[in-house]
Design brief:
The chain is mostly beta strands. It has one domain: Electron Transport, Fmn-binding Protein, Chain A (Pnp Oxidase, Chain A, Roll). It has three helices and twelve strands; from the N terminus they run H-E-E-E-E-E-H-E-H-E-E-E-E-E-E. The strands form three sheets. Strands 3-2-6-9-10-5-4 form a seven-stranded antiparallel beta sheet. It has a three-stranded antiparallel beta sheet with strand order 1-11-12, with no helix packed on it. Strands 7-8 form a two-stranded antiparallel ribbon. A hairpin with a 2-residue loop joins strand 11 and strand 12. The chain starts with a helix and ends in a 15-residue tail after the last strand. The structure holds flavin-adenine dinucleotide (FAD). Flavin-adenine dinucleotide binds next to strand 3, strand 5 and helix 2.
Amino acid sequence: MTVSDAEFRAVLGRFPTGVTIVTTCDGERPAGVTINAFASVSLDPPLVMVCIDKRSHMHGLVAQSGIFAANILGDHQQDLSRRFAGQVGDRNERFRQTAYHLGVTGAPVLDDVIAYVECRVLAIYPGGDHSIFLGKVEGLGATTGEPLTYYRARYGALDMDKDASVVPGGRE
Ligand SMILES: Cc1cc2nc3c(=O)[nH]c(=O)nc-3n(C[C@H](O)[C@H](O)[C@H](O)COP(=O)(O)OP(=O)(O)OC[C@H]3O[C@@H](n4cnc5c(N)ncnc54)[C@H](O)[C@@H]3O)c2cc1C
């Protein structure tokens, strides 16, 4: 069976995700890109993964620096997501008006996100036109705030039933 681009996007687009900005350093300069292919992998040791397009600028930068931070966006940060996806402005302007500090790995951590994980690259696996970067978590943090969501190529926000029971054995 052959799968067309359109079919693939239509089906996979029905899996809702959050939105992150994955950051790293280009020498002294911060670099970042909008990524929704982000997931937790392992608890012990703590591992996460991000998938990055092999043709993108960011691919080479993360491979070279060996560090990245995944900054999890809040529902007020659609504009930031568009900017770091290259849909608005110039790549060199992405960090303008975006406060950040360098975290324990040296990767930029954005100040106004709802959570972040900082990683050292443990392995890079082939994944078709993307590469899968496996990262060992070396720092992390979270604040209050609701996440930005992405579903069928649209941004949204969670409408959680705050009274719903917690899934037994579920991860927070
Ligand atoms: C909600 C959302 C989620 C996203 N999730 C992901 C994700 O999980 N992984 C991911 O990799 N990207 C993802 N993107 C896309 C990514 O944010 C953008 O492609 C971004 O501009 C990459 O920035 P860059 O500076 O690294 O890439 P740039 O170097 O600016 O390249 C941008 C894109 O242009 C294309 N391109 C570049 N050079 C060439 C070339 N020579 N020939 C043909 N095409 C070329 C590639 O597709 C590349 O990804 C997502 C975007 C959005 C809006």
